[in-house]
Amino acid sequence: MPVSADDRPWLDGDASFEQRASALVARMTLEEKAAQMQNDAPAIERLGVPAYDWWNEGLHGVARAGGATVFPQAIGMAATFDVPLLGQVATAISDEARAKHHRFVAEGKHGRYQGLTYWSPNINIFRDPRWGRGQETYGEDPWLTARLGVAFVQGLQGDDPVYRKLDATAKHFAVHSGPEADRHHFDVAPSRRDLYDTYLPAFETLVKEAHVASVMGAYNRVYGESASASRFLLQDTLRTQWGFMGYVVSDCWAVVDIWKNHRIVATPEEAAALAVGNGTQLDCGNTYAQSIPVAVHKGLLSEQAVDAAVTQLFTTRMRLGMFDPAEKVRWQRIPYTANQSPGHDALARKVAQESIVLLKNDGLLPLPRTLKRIAVVGPTADDTMALLGNYYGTPAAPVTILQGIREAVPQAEVVHARGADLVQGRSDPAATPLIEPRYLRPAAGSSERGLRGEYFANRDLAGTPALVRVDPQIAFRWDRGSPTDTLRARGEVGPRQSLPDDNFSIRWSGQLVPPRSGTYRLEAAANDGVRVYLDGKPVIDRWKESDRLQAESVELQLQGQRAYDLRLEYFEGERDAGVRLAWEMPGALPPLEEAVQAARDANVVVFVGGLTGDVEGEEMQVDYPGFAGGDRTDIRLPATQQQLLEAMQATGTPVVAVLTTGSALGVDWAKAHLPALLVAWYPGQRGGNAVADVLFGDVNPAGRLPITFYKADQLMPAFEDYAMQGRTYRYFDGEPLYPFGHGLSYTTFQYDGLRLDRTRVGAAGTLQASVRVRNSGERAGDEVVQLYVRGQQDGTGRSLKDLRGVQRITLRPGEERELQFTLHPGADLRRYDEAGQRYVVDPGHYELQVGASSSDIRQRAAFEVTPE
């Protein structure tokens, strides 16, 4: 029987969110409550409760929900060492998330990636460069991770005292950083010192200082307990010690792992009871919905515990304003035009500029704009995936590094040669050159260039198209399928036109005019189905779903300047989507020879290579030499690219290498032989412009490495070993290739006058430090001033040094600024005492270090911590 409008106390705006949620839950059946504890919570129509999916991603932009601004990957944002900038990025992301959510709701959509509860940021410690998901983190330092994480969470959650803007989620709690292939099985038991000094501090800070709304458990076990059902982690630590008041969500299908892979219990209902009983309110998966009622009936779990969990979940939905009139929630006034706005696009470029790390420069950079011919060589130079990393949205107009260079120096001849595959043995759909617009026309006699595209709101090319337009090239990659948001942002889809998120199709038609006669290799790549017809005859036919972009090709004898009727048909099933039309023309040189020729004829070579999210990432199903399941087994540049890089250097033309990557690369050879080397990370939608800005001196680089770059032959501890000894700048006592915090500039900075306000301080006191920094060069630039503390190396296993302060400042030539830092010994000098099972601050002598990296220390001062 439906409940009358007068009998819905959960809509009473005068009651607290907790009271309203409790009143709502009291009306639910056990089965309804259990269903609300899974990520895709169904509607309860009799109570007026809409469906809601808790699963949303916003790592570096709203992800998997169509068009959105794509900022640099998290590791690139960390390289800015700019804490306030992270807050600006998160504010932009939450603006877009709110705007998109309200549009989705208005259209009656309540599915995955359309909500307000975001499973970001990833604040795991990037302890080992082989981890494929390290790109999602803020690097290897717990203090920097915490500071950046706080800014990000605050930007997502907003500053309204009543309604949260979004829910942020600190993940993956805890002790989680690979190997990806083993994450559903392994048990990690770090020393308590490593646990409390490295793996937990960022989580603690986000809980206590940022008041993060949610925490996500990890897949693995910790001390024998599933991290997503751990009494030690979720009860003793998170709630009892830290006072966490939010909700916990399992990693996706981690509750299944409890019984199926970890075999902690024997049945799904026992796993559900264990997870709920130990504090995981929300299951990303479907175990709870099916098994909680069984667990309650068997006496494994009380219905009161279920009520408490569901009440907490509805409290957070109400705090997000989902059950209140729009006029009461200030965040509902964010217009849809916030999504992919010009301001956000400019911010994406700024963040990318700040993230670029200049590793080496022997005077080659910045490049003069008077160059006549530039060879841009390498497999990631013109690859959109090299901009995106993982967990990304669909950028409206991504700018590859090749495109950015061409836009920066339109007067120069910029020749592109891919030169090599990304990795050996990978059939890369991006390797074949696209068919350029000049060889395509939408109809006979047309002056336009490109093909006529008909977009259908079904996968069968049936009925009237929702959109008809001319596309200059067929080169699309849509995250989670739908081009809807991208087309709306361009004003191409009107109120009566719509495309679904999945299950749509497109027909492109027109004429193909080859420039010369010969054998062409025509290639169509798609995720999912694709068919190509030439003069009405099928030449490519792969009309089936696929889980990734797959290429099909055919060799054809074509006559030059003859117009061939061309038709390409494509359908998208579910999730990620993409399609491209490419060819190899007759007479083309082998890739390496083409690159060598381009380099010999150029004034400078810009090599662009490294990695992409296609080879490093989360639990991937493809393996290549040097890669396994998304992780890396070799930190060197892939052999295909190393051969290409050496061939470029052998031509005698100066070479600058630009590395796209989400992790450290052992580029020893490049350091020894090339005059200039920089890291662009996965730089987001405006990454190509940002790289060009740095190359040609419009921007003075100041990014810093948030991870240690090790030498290629460095013997690393076993990947499976979670002990910190020998890892990261805090415990590695060898010589790195490039140290944590490293990054050069086109100008120089001098440090002097380090002063402490006292030389003796108690653990409960504060220590003030000041230092003068002057731009001693001839260009304006940013300097990232870093403060470290080094304690006594007394055999207790303490770290070698710890970052405890960062300030990124801009100085004109000759300008000087005095910077202030405050040290709180009780927090900044604490270490975990395993014998006493508590944090302690050791009395004794310490050294405060200020410099431009963890190894480039410019000023030092000693102080003493006195016994309390």
Characterize the structure shown.
By secondary structure, this protein is an alpha+beta fold. Among the domains are: 1-49 and 276-325, no CATH class; 434-584, Jelly Rolls (Sandwich), CATH 2.60.120.380; 749-866, Immunoglobulins (Immunoglobulin-like), CATH 2.60.40.10. The chain is built from 22 helices and 37 strands. The model is unreliable at 1-5 and 487-496 (pLDDT under 50).
Q: How would you concisely characterize the structure shown here?
A:
The chain is of the alpha+beta class. It contains 22 helices and 37 strands.
Q: SSE layout and pairings?
A:
Blueprint: H1 17-25, H2 30-35, E1 40-41, E2 52-53, H3 74-78, H4 83-106, H5 142-157, E3 169-173, E4 187-188, H6 192-199, H7 201-208, E5 214-217, E6 221-222, E7 225-226, H8 231-241, E8 247-249, H9 254-260, H10 268-277, H11 287-297, H12 303-319, H13 342-355, E9 357-361, E10 373-377, H14 385-388, H15 401-408, E11 413-417, E12 440-441, E13 451-456, E14 467-471, E15 475-478, H16 484-489, E16 504-512, E17 518-527, E18 529-534, E19 537-542, E20 550-558, E21 564-572, E22 577-584, H17 591-600, E23 604-610, E24 627-628, E25 631-632, H18 639-650, E26 655-660, H19 668-673, E27 676-679, H20 687-695, H21 728-731, E28 749-756, E29 760-762, E30 767-775, E31 781-790, E32 802-811, E33 816-823, H22 825-828, E34 831-833, E35 838-840, E36 844-851, E37 857-866
Parallel strand pairs: 3-5, 4-6, 5-8, 10-11, 10-23, 23-26, 26-27, 29-37
Antiparallel strand pairs: 1-2, 6-7, 9-27, 12-16, 13-14, 13-16, 15-22, 16-21, 17-20, 17-22, 18-19, 18-21, 24-25, 28-30, 30-33, 31-32, 31-36, 34-35, 36-37
Helix pairs in contact: 1-12, 4-5, 4-13, 5-7, 9-10, 10-11, 13-20, 15-20
